[in-house]
Amino acid sequence: MDIQGLRFTSPFTRNNTDVRNVLAQTFPSATPAILDYITQTLYSDNSTRQNTSDETVRAALIASESLFSCNTRYLSRAFGPGTYDYVFAIPPGLHGQDIPYMFYNGGGVSPSVGKPETAVELQKYITNFIRTGKPDGDGKQPVAVEPFEPYGANGNVKLLGPEGPQAKGAAAGELDPTKNARCDWWQQALYAGTQ
């Protein structure tokens, strides 16, 4: 479940009116018709991947996609085959939780780094990318890591989860979770219209 928006969602979101009011505050230029489309079609109870009637979770999904995760897809599409995406999925998988993993300097498990082996792998990918432009290195002097496919048209992403790095993409039978109709709609920026 995509819950990175939970930190940005009121726990007092109890019904569709609450969700709509938060959207109106977040996107003040959105017309009433756009707000209706978001709440009644794009994120209706039947359209969300969680199929939830919990309005707080529904609002968190809207925040996650509109403010964070869909933006990564836009950037990946804009910069073409030279981008490499990962999904940080060590529970709870909240926005920014990967930062301590990037700066981990040893010392075993800590409150902010529960999987030191994943921290080391992430650092190897970042180091290789800085040195060679590719997270898995250039084949000459890479730091040994699992292959890391570019985002590309298939929406390949590397899943950094409890079991370590895993490929997600056409070859793995899975795609970027933001490669969906909701993110395509957000990219149009229809919420930025005038009233």
The secondary-structure element order is HHHEHHEEH
Strand percentage? 5-15%
Mean pLDDT: 83
* Shape field: globular
Count of DSSP helices?
A: 6
Contiguous low-pLDDT stretches (5 residues minimum) are none
Instruction: Give the end-to-end Cα distance, rounded to a whole number of Å.
Output: 33 Å
Structural class: mainly alpha
Could you describe the 3D structure shown?
The protein has 195 residues and is mostly helical. It is built from 6 helices and 3 strands, in the order H-H-H-E-H-H-E-E-H. It has helices at residues 16-26, 32-42, 55-78, 99-102, 116-132, 181-187; strands at 86-88, 157-161, 164-168. The protein has a 3-stranded mixed beta sheet, with helices on one face. Strand 2 (157-161) and strand 3 form a beta hairpin.
